[in-house]
């Protein structure tokens, strides 16, 4: 189902208001995260709005489809489509991020660099459909995310406090923890039409 694109449009409007308000009032990351996480939880509570083109897996690579990019680069929204068993490298973001699981489930493992080695920071966290988690340089920014399933697709929706596909950030060597610069880009050539007519009942 992808009939209810207005849910996505409303979410984008809500986040635009939040970041504008935070900018005007000098509100920090914590205020935006608290409010945006509630809005993201509401968005991923219903799986009937993501366009089919943004939900298709690739046989080899996890997909990062830009759903919306703020023209001022204050935030971006991305659908991550995980094929069976697919996972990210260990990476950071350098901006705040919220992860909301729309379909299936994913596993989040945090890391830290300690004494020239990359070590797991806490236990793996299983995020099921409807759940939301946060990352940021202040909360803990280095992690690996993977599909919890080896036999089905999972999809999560990520909101970032910048244009994540264009930000110069890092992947980390699994053994030494040495950071290497990378820019993730986006998988899609076209973005969803947020102004498509509302679905008929
Ligand atoms: Fe991440």
Count structural domains. 1
Could you say which overall geometry the principal axes of the C-alpha atoms support? Answer: globular
Main sheet properties: 5 strands, antiparallel
| Number of helical stretches of at least 4 residues | 2
Distance between the termini: 13 Å
Number of strands: 11
The helix fraction, in percent, is 10-25%
CATH C-level label: Mainly Beta
CATH-assigned fold name: Jelly Rolls
Q: Widest sheet: strand order? A: 1-2-9-3-7
Overall average pLDDT: 93
CATH architecture annotation name: Sandwich
Oligomer: single chain
Instruction: Give the helices and strands as they follow along the chain.
Output: HHEEEEEEEEEEE
**For this structure, what is the CATH homologous superfamily?**
Jelly Rolls
Strand content: 25-35%
Distinct ligands? fe (ii) ion
- Which consecutive residue ranges, at least 5 long each, have pLDDT under 50? none
Broad structural category: alpha+beta
Radius of gyration computed on alpha carbons: 16 Å
Description:
The protein is of the alpha+beta class and 201 residues long. It has one domain: Sandwich (Jelly Rolls). It contains two helices and eleven strands; from the N terminus they run ααβββββββββββ. The longest helix is centred in the N-terminal third of the chain and has 21 residues, at 5-25. The radius of gyration is 16 Å and the shape is globular. The two termini are 13 Å apart. The model has no long low-confidence stretch (mean pLDDT 93). Residues 91, 93, 135, 143, 145 line the site of fe (ii) ion. Fe (ii) ion binds at residues 91, 93, 135, 143, 145.
């Amino acid at each position: 189902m992808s009939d209810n694109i207005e849910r996505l449009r409303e979410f984008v409007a809500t986040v635009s208001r939040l970041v504008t308000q935070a900018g005007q009032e000098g509100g920090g990351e914590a205020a935006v995260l608290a409010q945006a996480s509630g809005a993201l939880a509401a968005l991923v509570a219903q799986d009937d709005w993501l366009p089919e083109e943004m939900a298709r897996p690739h046989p080899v690579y996890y997909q990062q489809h830009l759903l919306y990019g703020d023209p001022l680069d204050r935030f971006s929204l991305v659908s991550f489509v995980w094929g069976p068993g697919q996972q990210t490298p260990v990476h950071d973001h350098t901006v705040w991020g919220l992860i909301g699981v729309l379909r299936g489930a994913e596993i989040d493992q945090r890391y830290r660099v300690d004494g020239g080695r990359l070590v797991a920071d806490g236990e793996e966290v299983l995020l099921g459909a409807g759940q939301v988690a946060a990352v940021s340089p202040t909360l803990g920014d280095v992690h690996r995310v993977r599909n919890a399933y080896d036999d089905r697709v999972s999809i999560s929706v990520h909101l970032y406090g910048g244009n994540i596909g264009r930000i110069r950030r890092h992947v980390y060597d699994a053994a030494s923890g040495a950071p290497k610069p990378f820019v993730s880009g986006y998988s899609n050539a076209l973005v969803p039409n947020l102004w498509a007519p509302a679905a008929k009942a």
